[in-house]
């Protein structure tokens, strides 16, 4: 029996997808050219557009679109938004069709391609060997985890009366930046002491999030003024604004960078998650609108192909990257009883979530049967009234989760066998705590409204 190669299947479906998208975009654009100011005429044109799309879908066997989808769009750019919505549905459906075709292809070639089958087995063995080696390394690292504490380095405390919502440190711990209300203050380590060297005043309102790039001498900031700024150094070694990223319609609460540092992911009070890609300049390439209220937390997994988010709408979104289409698609929506401000991947299959004011952190793990995340355990912590910002972090080298909860910052060991141990809980006497743990786990930097200091604590084994 003659078979079709996998590359031909992919190429065929890619062509079909592109043709369908182009046809729908053209139909939508044509149908909206004649829209005038009257609401009745606008609605008539919208439903005509949906009929055109529905007709195309019947021909290409794509999922039907409910006409109620129109009422999701609140701004004036109807054609673009409908195209995005339809394309998202097409991506999911066509991705599933490609998977089915690939399965059929594997069945067809099962008996006639024994050589390829044996090669696949060899590759699988190599992958399994790598996995075992990685697991062994992780287990060795975790078995070597010793009791520890973080001691305050008083001589490096910095008096800071302005409200400080965000802190970040560069990769070699030589520069510290702090979002002090609308300003960004830059500190450098000079003869072992942190000294302020520059104040940046480009933002118009409070700075909520800061992230250093590790491959280049840049950092990014997100603010209540709705903007993201890319910062770089000039010829005088001073930090300057390189580019504004404007697209959010309300304050920005969280930012994530991928390891290649060519994608920025932002979440904000406008309920949106935006993906910014670096081309000649930074451009917004996709927007996720599935949250119905503010986006408060974002985190990427180790493989950088999965994003999870939490919002004040009591939902956690699991968003997967589909390489074939270079798109992010919502794979799972997890309803939680209480909204939370922070969540964190421990590995590709496990993440933690802290619900507001609770005395426990929830652990979610992937179910191997349906590939869905479910709650598996709770980690007891000291709770209390909480506030957003101060993202959770997992420090892999120390197998340690850093989580702000209520009046405390909890430092929790996460072991290979699933055992957890709350190594230390630092109490600040206030719930207004903001901070950052360096990537190597050596320093915990915080600001709180009780001490009104930027405080540095250093890792020490007991």
Automatic annotation (TrEMBL):
WD repeat residue intervals: 200-231, 245-277
Coiled coil: 10-41, 91-118
GO biological process, one term: iron-sulfur cluster assembly
Keyword terms: Coiled coil, WD repeat
Pfam family, one: WD40
Matching InterPro entries: WD40_rpt
PROSITE patterns: WD_REPEATS_2 (PS50082), WD_REPEATS_REGION (PS50294)
Gene Ontology CC, one term: cytosolic [4Fe-4S] assembly targeting complex
Keyword Coiled coil: yes
Name of the molecule in the record: Uncharacterized protein
Organism, as annotated: Paramecium pentaurelia
């Amino acid at each position: 029996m003659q078979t079709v190669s996998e590359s031909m299947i992919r190429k065929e479906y890619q062509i079909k997808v592109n043709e369908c998208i182009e046809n729908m975009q053209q139909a939508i654009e044509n149908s909206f050219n004649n829209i005038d100011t009257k609401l009745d005429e606008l609605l008539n044109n919208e439903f005509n557009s949906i009929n055109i799309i529905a007709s195309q879908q019947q021909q290409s066997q794509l999922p039907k679109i409910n006409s109620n989808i129109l009422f999701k769009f609140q701004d004036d750019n109807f054609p673009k938004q409908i195209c995005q919505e339809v394309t998202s549905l097409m991506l999911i459906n066509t991705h599933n069709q490609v998977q089915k075709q690939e399965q059929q292809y594997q069945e067809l070639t099962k008996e006639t391609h024994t050589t390829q089958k044996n090669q696949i087995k060899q590759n699988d063995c190599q992958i399994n060997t790598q996995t075992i080696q990685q697991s062994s390394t992780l287990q060795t690292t975790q078995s070597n985890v010793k009791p520890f504490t973080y001691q305050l380095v008083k001589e490096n405390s910095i008096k800071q009366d302005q409200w400080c919502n965000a802190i970040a440190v560069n990769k070699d711990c030589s520069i510290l930046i702090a979002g002090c209300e609308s300003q960004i203050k830059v500190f450098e380590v000079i003869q072992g002491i942190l000294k302020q060297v520059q104040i940046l005043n480009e933002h118009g309102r409070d700075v909520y999030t800061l992230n250093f790039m590790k491959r280049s001498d840049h950092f990014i900031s997100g603010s209540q003024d709705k903007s993201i700024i890319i910062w770089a150094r000039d010829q005088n070694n001073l930090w300057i604004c390189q580019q504004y990223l404007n697209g959010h319609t309300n304050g920005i609460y969280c930012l994530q960078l991928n390891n290649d540092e060519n994608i920025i992911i932002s979440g904000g009070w406008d309920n949106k998650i935006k993906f910014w890609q670096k081309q000649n300049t930074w451009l917004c390439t996709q927007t996720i609108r599935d949250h119905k209220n503010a986006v408060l937390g974002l985190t990427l997994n180790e493989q950088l192909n999965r994003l999870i988010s939490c919002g004040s709408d009591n939902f956690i979104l699991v968003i997967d990257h589909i390489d074939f289409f270079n798109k992010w698609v919502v794979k799972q929506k997890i309803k939680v009883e209480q909204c939370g401000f922070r969540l964190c991947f421990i590995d590709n299959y496990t993440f933690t979530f802290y619900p507001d004011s609770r005395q426990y952190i929830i652990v979610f793990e992937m179910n191997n049967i349906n590939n869905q995340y479910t709650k598996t355990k709770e980690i007891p912590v000291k709770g209390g009234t909480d506030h957003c910002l101060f993202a959770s972090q997992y420090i892999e080298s120390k197998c340690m989760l850093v989580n702000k909860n209520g009046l405390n910052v909890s430092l929790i060991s996460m072991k290979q066998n699933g055992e957890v141990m709350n190594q230390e809980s630092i109490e600040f006497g206030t719930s207004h705590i903001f901070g950052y743990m360096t990537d190597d786990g050596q320093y915990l930097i915080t600001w709180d409204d009780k001490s009104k200091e930027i405080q540095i604590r250093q890792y020490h084994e007991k």
